[in-house]
Amino acid sequence: MGTHYKGTKREVQALDTFIKLMRGTGSLSSRLRSQLDNSSLTESQFSVLEALLHLGPLCPSSLAQKLLQTAGNLTLVIRNLEKQGLVRRKQEGSDRRYFTISLTPAGEKLIRKVFAKHVLAITLEMQALSPEEQAELGRLCKKLGLSRATLEG
């Protein structure tokens, strides 16, 4: 279902494309989220653990930047992961405000297990597209994601 907006041809096409992008993303995210439900992790917790697994210890601001969130948003997520024994904070240097977040052995074990299942679920979902279509979709998403930066920069 596309837009019912009666605007210029360019506006209607842009809105229709946006609706399809959002619906497709929402549908895919919903199916992948249900797979995460079995892990007892929220999407935000999964994202933090996955970033730490693949990037190593990070300070909260770097982690927030990688996840496209604000450091304030991640404070509660990190605190909850810490309470569960999945991450730890380590103060760096003499500045008491600067610290890094890293995985604990329990956190690494959990995210490796959950991530393996997540990769399998994503791989199965992406089979709807040929390898060439996946590459093209990736290229187009990157282009769209960088478009404002390109126009402004």
Give a quick summary of the entry.
The protein is mainly alpha-helical and 153 residues long.
The CATH architecture of the largest domain can be named as: Orthogonal Bundle
Low-pLDDT parts are none
- Characterize the biggest β-sheet: 2 strands, antiparallel
The main sheet orders its strands as 1-2
In terms of structural class, how would the helical and strand content be classed?
mainly alpha
End-to-end gap: 35 Å
Radius of gyration: 19 Å
* Whole-number count of domains: 2
Helix content: 55-70%
Which geometry do the CA atoms define? Answer: globular
CATH T-level fold name of the largest domain:
Arc Repressor Mutant, subunit A
Instruction: Give the CATH level 1 class of the largest domain.
Output: Mainly Alpha
Secondary-structure map:
Blueprint: H1 9-37, H2 43-55, H3 60-66, H4 71-83, E1 87-91, E2 99-103, H5 105-126, H6 131-152
Antiparallel strand pairs: 1-2
Helix pairs in contact: 1-5, 2-5, 3-4
Describe the structure using short key phrases:
single chain; 153 residues; mainly alpha; Arc Repressor Mutant, subunit A; 2 domains; two-stranded antiparallel sheet; 6 helices
